[in-house]
Amino acid sequence: MQDSLHADRLFCFGLGFSAMALAERLLLKGWQVSGTCRDIDSQNLINAKNISVFLFDGSQATPEISQAISRATHLLVTIPPQPSGDVVLENFGEEISRARHLKWIGYISSTGVYGDSQGEWVDENSPLRGSTELNRRRIEVESAWLKRRQGLPVMIFRCVGIYGPGRNLLVSVKKGRARRIGKPGLVFSRIHVVDLAQTLEASINKPQSGEIYNVSDDCPCPPAEAVEYACDLLGVEPPPLVPYEEADLSPTARGFYNTNKRISNQKIKEVLGVKLRYSDYRSGLKALLADL
Q: Is the distance from CB of 138 to CB of 110 less than 8 angstroms?
């Protein structure tokens, strides 16, 4: 265990699925971890993991969070943009700018900022064509964080759909929530939360302010194909194939099905040296089968 005065200290705005994967990885290496959540039940669960947790609903700064930021060496932001913008910068922008110990700031964004490329490959230099209100806000918030890169070590991570223990297609199939929707030519990309966490850690070990990274596996594929594989692993019949035009989808879900792109992950491999543990959904789901 490192001396407490010199220990690496991670503060996470939004101790959810992705942040907890990184937190648990770093706790094993002697890091101190703290962060925010929205409700008392989550606070109690996370406190039990030796993580200091502060309640934050996005509406106001608190002295306790400000103090934790002032001590942090690393900062992870997973809270998505709100209609008003980025609640972290709104409430704690000055405190973050004044934080003397910060070596790394990671902002979790989405590959949704690329919009629709009609199935073509996109990389970090591709044009941003966010087609939904949320993704247009993501583009604005990315820009707001990157404007601070001269004084702060800011890096952006554009993620595809994140899955892992307790949150994956096997769980959806077992609960009867999985749907098989057909739209010719459409592909989705995914990333196992373990590979997202190792990508964040690789960047922590090699911070390059202002850099943007796509976080995705190697295997964009039709969404129905992944559902069929999950059903095959569980030995059950797949749900009926519903044409996209006939599917009853929420506006958010329809937004996913209206954008079609293949996400290049070459940069995290070449620049950060990431070697994916789960390079496609098959290896990821097969490993998760044991967790059921």
A: yes
